[in-house]
Amino acid sequence: MTLDPVSDAFVTVLAAELPPQTLRPVEARFLEEPRGRFRGDGGVLALPRTVEEVATILRACGRARVGVVPYGGGTGLVGGQVMPGTARPLVLSLERMNRVRAVHPLENVIVAEAGVILADLQSAAEAEDRLFPLSLGSEGSARIGGNLSTNAGGVNVLRYGNARDLCLGLEAVLPNGEIWNGLTRLRKDNTGYDLRNLLIGAEGTLGVITAAALKLFARPASVGTALMVVRDPSAALELLALARAEAGEGVSAFELIHRQGLEFVAEHLPDTRQPISPAPEWMVLVELGLSRGADNALETVFAAGLEAGLVSDGVIAQSDQQRAAFWRLREAIPEANKIVGSVASHDISLPLGALAGFIEEATGAVRALGPFRVNCFGHLGDGNLHFNVFPQDGHDRSEYDDLRHDVSRRVHDLVMALGGSFSAEHGVGRLKVEDLERYGDPAKLKAMRAIKQALDPQGIMNPGAVLAPG
Amino acid sequence: MTLDPVSDAFVTVLAAELPPQTLRPVEARFLEEPRGRFRGDGGVLALPRTVEEVATILRACGRARVGVVPYGGGTGLVGGQVMPGTARPLVLSLERMNRVRAVHPLENVIVAEAGVILADLQSAAEAEDRLFPLSLGSEGSARIGGNLSTNAGGVNVLRYGNARDLCLGLEAVLPNGEIWNGLTRLRKDNTGYDLRNLLIGAEGTLGVITAAALKLFARPASVGTALMVVRDPSAALELLALARAEAGEGVSAFELIHRQGLEFVAEHLPDTRQPISPAPEWMVLVELGLSRGADNALETVFAAGLEAGLVSDGVIAQSDQQRAAFWRLREAIPEANKIVGSVASHDISLPLGALAGFIEEATGAVRALGPFRVNCFGHLGDGNLHFNVFPQDGHDRSEYDDLRHDVSRRVHDLVMALGGSFSAEHGVGRLKVEDLERYGDPAKLKAMRAIKQALDPQGIMNPGAVLAPG
Prior knowledge:
Chains A, B: Belongs to the FAD-binding oxidoreductase/transferase type 4 family. Chains A, B: GO terms for molecular function: catalytic activity; FAD binding. Chains A, B: It comes from Shimia aestuarii. Chains A, B: This is FAD/FMN-containing dehydrogenase. The structure is a homodimer. By secondary structure, chain A is an alpha+beta fold. Among the domains of chain A are: 119 residues, 2-Layer Sandwich (Uridine Diphospho-n-acetylenolpyruvylglucosamine Reductase, domain 3); 118 residues, Alpha-Beta Plaits, CATH 3.30.70.2190; 77 residues, Alpha-Beta Plaits, CATH 3.30.70.2740. Helices cover 34% and strands 21% of the residues of chain A. The first copy, chain A, contains 14 helices and 18 strands. A 5-stranded antiparallel β-sheet of chain A has the order 5-6-10-8-9. Chain A has a 4-stranded mixed β-sheet with strand order 1-2-4-3, covered by helices on one side. In chain A, strands 13-14-12-15 form a 4-stranded antiparallel β-sheet, sandwiched between helices. In chain A, strand 17 and strand 18 form a beta hairpin. The longest helix of chain A is centred in the last third of the chain and has 21 residues. Chain A is globular and about 70 Å long. The mean pLDDT of chain A is 96. The interface between A and B is large, with 89 and 89 residues.
């Protein structure tokens, strides 16, 4: 079934059903995405303020067979938020649905609309002395609806889980324009199919999330953060086991950092403090959050790691300022990567046991294809690495456009052979539709198509994302 | 679309595709369920040993339009495992698929077939010095496939989540007979719709779970267990907040116990030790699991509770034997309930803030209908109560058959008005199909029917469970 581009007639009719200024010409910022691989070609922008307005919009799009591209903060890295081609869609931005509807500190629940910026949600929790633990580089502009639609990950998944794990209930508009009021604050509710988790991670292809009830947590009274130089990724994993033996679920973050990333930061973001110099080949950023004694626990972990020959150097943050500097270094790595410009980026996950071997083998495989630099870093505790491939110094990524596909194929083939995933936290979007076709389980793909057809028979929701048009 | 009962011809043809003895006459135990509300009427029993055999069976049932009732340990309390009526189904028991396929202690993952008994799974984890935290009264006979299909809860949900939260990956056979190999050990995998969570909690209506990759945890080195007498449910909730302030995520269990339950136990299971005498109106069973000092932490919590006027008495287990006795008392409550025989049982959840008010109001509402005794107990920390209604001493539940419906309606109406759930952890099964129709969100129900139709167009999977036949 083909879709129609938005027409003047469509806009006129729909505008009459909505408050003034809800529909507008689409601005350029809604047609671009951070990595510059996809570009939209016009359409109309809708800025609803209520779930009822979203429902009105979806019903109209269904009647007119107009595609709908839900838009959060626009920070996604796989092109899920930008629809190229001439079937110009309605871009549905949730940015005006940006109210925190309620905070229930005693229940540890916050209810927020889809357009709330992640950092604002964190602040609203903090104002009640609670923690909303989802945390990622783009939290200053990402919106919670997008975080949920893509099941975002980030640096605290190790302890608190993905966006999926933080969600108790949803309000959403389904592709037929019906409102699902599933905004429960319950911890347990076994009344039928798990529509919540079906919408989470569906990247806007099965409906539009308009609000969510989310879990809050106690803010750990004692937080300790350290950088530790490790022998290699395998030693880092052993160190993680030591940290867990000492602090249990108190290990909040365990991030792997490679020298290549530190060198990119030193070159392109020279104001960034580098607490350990010269840059070691491998180090980890460890954070513990306990009711007391986090720094002592870090010292115990470091001593145990030293004795076991896993770590050789380290520094524990002595102030909030120093802790912020450690995290600033971690966050500078993807920023520096972006400045350098990768030939290919891979957001992969592996069973923990396969991780160390993969890094070695994949680096070799990529270097066999060309004179590349590899920056491998990320959420080691989750088995989630960003394995990014860069040209040699003085060269531009555009010189290797013809190799990009081969590089990614090699990396992903290896990941899949080891029982891993070609998209750990970024999703499929439009970038990895082919990968999903290639690597996805056939029975699952068939079931996905059946579900898509059942809930969105006209295919209006985020056309071309996740699943290739049928 | 109507289904056909199993015929001799069907059995003959299918038997030829399977190893000898895979199909058998169905034994009586597969036609009964614990509460005696549903009874099967024959059919044939299938005892496959492999996922391929399950696929063969489902394909044959699809061709012949024979209903399939997946069967785990048979411990479900809502009739999901027993199909009444004359359209005699194939009962698919997973009991011979009972291998632990692999344990990965360093990854904290165990891979088990659906037929593994929950207690055996706990033991397999313990043998590797790990914890598989799902724990519930029927763990000695419940099987993990059933636990996942019903998204079982139990006493450790507070800390570790429901069955859903413990599952990383699934192997399953879909209604069309295709095998989905989703048995990943990954912590992060954003590659398409969340089929795993769709099957979990679908109670066998969307396919058959044949194996799962499950999360393991470190066994807390220091476990402390206490009984504390609380003023009322509201004080219990404040005490929970104190416990969390002291022990963070280390609060593993927080169970509410009412005097009525203790009296039932004293009368019907008189060998059960009752550490606090005379029986208090309300008490809680608290368990902490920490890396060290759990008993000290319990003492701190008790002292703080005493000072705040929340608790008046308490006892901390001084040995493993004493701890086991505390838990034995907790587990004896549903056993005693069963002996007394309830007029109506309710497995409800509420927002924590609404809990205390509900108990008072619902008890009043029920007593207005008849001379009933109420035993309200359960997983307070999850907002999940078992609100069970019994006849006066010397009377039998059968005397109140005509009131059962009204009692449940009153209780559930109140639960729903407070934003709760009429099935917190037991599921819908066949018992609560009407409740789901009545209380379920219309848009969600429509989406559920569309998904069911898409994945199981013939309606062969557990007919009559969860959704009324269309």
